[in-house]
Please model this.
Amino acid sequence: MATIKDIAALTKVSPATVSRVLNNDQTISVLEETRDRIFQAAKELGYKTILERRVEQQFESSKAIPGVGILLCQTVEEELSDPYFLSIRQGVEEELLNQGITSTGMFRLHDTGQNQLVRDLEGLIVIGRISEKALKTVSGHVENVVYINHSPNDDLYDSVVIDFVKSTEKVVGHLLEKGYKRIGYIGGIEREHLNNQKMVIEDERLTTFERIMEKEGLFNPNYTFIGEYTMTQGYELMKKALQENDLPEAFFIASDPMAIGALRALQEAKLTVPNDVAIVGFDDIEMAKFASTPLTTIRVYTKEMGHAGVKLLVERINGRKLPIKVTVPTKLVVRQSSGC
Model:
C-alpha cells in the first residue's frame, strides 16, 4: 500500500506538503501544478486518504447490512395475550441489533393477504407456524428463510424449535410420579392466518399427552378441554371442567397464561392448588413464579430461540447451503402447583 513518503519521493515534494495537499488543507500555499502532480501520483500509486478510506468503509458496511424481514404468524391480540411469541420476537430483535442489522421489515401473516412481502429482502425470519404453500404465497422470492418454533421442511429450511414431545413427556411423567391418575388437559388451538382463513394446526402437546395416557391405560377424553391460548380461555375452560361431575385430580395446561386463568377459576370454586387439584403449565413466563400458587411448568428459552434464528440466517446469507435444525432444550421447573 502506497504511503505519503512514496508520493513525496515520486513528486520531489516534502511528505508534510503531500499530506496537507491530499487532506485538502486550505491554509497551505502551493502551486496548482504541484497540487495536480501530487494528486496524479497518489492516483497512480493507489493511495487513499483517511477520509476516502472512511467513506469507502462506510459504503461497504452499508452494502453488507442485509435486508431482513420478520414474519409474525400471530395476530396482535394473540401475541399480547401470550408472551411466548412476543419473547421470541424480542430475542430476534436483540440479536439483529447485536449483528448490526437494522434494515428490517416486520409483517403479520394475516395482514399480507395475497400480496408478497418487500422484494429486496435477503432473508426472512418466520416466527410461528406456517405451511410452505402459505409462505410461498407471501414470500416466494426470498431465498434465505429461517423458521422459529416450526420446521416445515428440514431438507430446505433452517429452523429453531423445541421438542414438544419430549417436553410433554416430562410433564406427564412428573404428574404420574407424583401418583396422579386422573389427569386432565387444557389447551388451545394453533391456527394459520392467511387470506382471512384460519387453518387448525396439530398441537404435539395434546397428541403426546393422549398417547402417553392411553399407553398407561389412564386416558379419559372427558378430561380434555380445548379453547384458545388466552388467560380468559384458561379460566373459562377450568370453569367448564368444574361443572363436570368427575373433576381430574391434576391438569396439564398447555400455556402459563391459561394456567393462571385456571388458577383463578379454582380459587373462586374454593378449591386449593395443589391439595384439591394439581397444575403444570408450559412456557415459564415471568408471571408463573409469582402466581397465587407458583406454577410448576416447562421452561422454554424463547429469547435464545430468537438469537439462534438470527445467527442461522446470517450464516445462510453469507453462503451456507446446508440447512440446519436447532432444537433448544427445555426444562421442567418444579414449584408448588404440582404438589411439591
